[in-house]
Design brief:
This protein is of the alpha/beta class. It is about 35% helix and about 15% strand. The protein has a seven-stranded mixed beta sheet with strand order 3-2-1-4-5-7-6, with helices on both faces. Bound molecules: zinc ion.
Amino acid sequence: MSLPDPFSSPEFPTQPLLLGPDQYAKTSQAVDKPRFRLLCVVAHPDDECFAFGGALALAADAGVETSVICFTDGQAATNRGTAASSEDLGRMRREEFVASCKVLGVTHHELLDYQDAQLEFAGFSQAAAKLVERIRRFKPDVVLTFGGDGSMNTHPDHTMVSAFTTAAYHWAASPKRFKDLGPIHVTQRLYYVTTSFFFPDRPAPLPAPWTVTLDIRAVRKRKFDAFRAHTSQVPLMAKFESFFEKHGDAEHYTLAASPTPQPATQTTGLSAGL
Ligand SMILES: [Zn+2]
């Protein structure tokens, strides 16, 4: 018997036995199950809501312990709000990131000190090691990050975060890698966020096909409220609002790795089968 899926979207008919968040909470208390943990790794403040906001808010509602690690403070952004300098924008965006995580109910958040728009030049092994240490310490059940396409805006920082996180997912589970960074941890699922649509007049990514359709209608407003907490990036939201009006009911993810060999199947939740 499989455990209930805390991220299930019961409106989608493909997985009728999945339970919703309320049932999960009751079941979880009844059997005293350890808290489910989800780690999300991003590149910039606003990625956590723009790309993953629905999954994070649904997880919070289901009692899942969530952690977001962000590599940069986003000081190279096009939209600069009232910032007088790049450092000033970085400081503002750190605060906006904290406010957004609060709206999404994120349990732990951390912003690393990598340089925005420079991740392709960062030391690969060192960056992955930072994630290996955090994965072994936090012990997530599920890890979310970008795909190699760089997401909707094909940002190279997103591609690099995908590469760092993918390596760290596998290396955290390997006794041969980073022996000094704590006992190994095998995370049950690695997912890449992907998309079912493109923005017109923008370079299109080459996205992975999705295996998860996550119905985020229940938390859609919170996702956008989190984005509005990024005051310096509000012009971005205005620019793309009509597309999110049309496509904002779901987020799509690709199952990229798990400890169990399996065919790709379509699911409606991020912990299906766990
Ligand atoms: Zn980004």
